[in-house]
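Q: Given only this backbone (223 positions), what sequence would you predict?
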């Protein structure tokens, strides 16, 4: 398959490509979670859920591999460095009890993926202690086991966990595509410049494209 993208068309073989959905969790998307504790307006992020859902459904329909990530710490916070915990909102830190349970802690209600994008049987779910999906996770090995060379990214936030994950993926040899309307930031100008910088310099980190051409390619008539 080949779809129009920036800085040039993105070619991929579905059998060797995974859809990677970064941190579409209640902690970032709903009021009362980690994102809001940092002083952000979370309503901006909720707006991309329908676009992500359309791609996820099409990807599932085409039989592609799906990976979901969650930014999640162990309940004892042994994987949360003080350098991370001590920044942010002093009144409500990672591990503190918030309106949706303990902030950014695995298993808590706020740490779950939003219901519209919830993983289904067989899909890979990666809990990650950092911003990048590869740091301190088994993701690279899992993708290698599945023969994956190409990654299509969606999720939040564009300049934090999505960008970090795309950079980690690029350094590990993957060809990454970011779906522009399926990612969002609490700061719209950060999203805009991130999209620009990822694909600058001939695709220094990867490609970006709207989801529409991908949806067309995944439709049974496009395959
Ligand atoms: N704060 C912010 O923009 N993002 C994060 O803390 N994590 C993710 O991007 N998932």
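A: Predicted residues:
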């Amino acid at each position: 398959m080949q779809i129009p993208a920036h800085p040039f068309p993105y070619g991929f073989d579905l059998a060797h490509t995974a859809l990677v959905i970064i941190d579409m969790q209640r902690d970032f998307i709903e009021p009362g979670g980690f994102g809001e504790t940092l002083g952000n307006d979370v309503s901006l992020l909720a707006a991309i859920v329908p676009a992500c859902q359309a791609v996820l459904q099409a990807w599932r329909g085409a039989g592609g591999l799906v990976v979901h990530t969650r930014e999640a710490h162990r309940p004892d916070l042994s994987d949360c460095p003080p350098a991370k915990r001590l920044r942010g909102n002093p009144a409500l830190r990672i591990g503190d009890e918030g309106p949706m349970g303990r902030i950014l802690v695995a298993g808590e209600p706020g740490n779950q993926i939003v219901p519209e994008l919830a993983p289904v049987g067989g899909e890979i779910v990666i809990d990650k202690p950092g911003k990048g999906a590869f740091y301190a996770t088994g993701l690279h090995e899992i993708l290698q086991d599945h023969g994956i060379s190409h990654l299509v990214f969606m999720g939040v936030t564009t300049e934090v966990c999505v960008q970090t994950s795309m950079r980690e993926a690029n350094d590990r040899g993957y060809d990454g595509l970011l779906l522009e309307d399926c990612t969002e930031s609490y700061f719209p100008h950060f999203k805009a410049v991130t999209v620009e910088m990822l694909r600058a310099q001939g695709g220094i980190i990867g490609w970006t494209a709207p989801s529409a051409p991908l949806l067309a390619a995944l439709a049974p008539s496009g395959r």
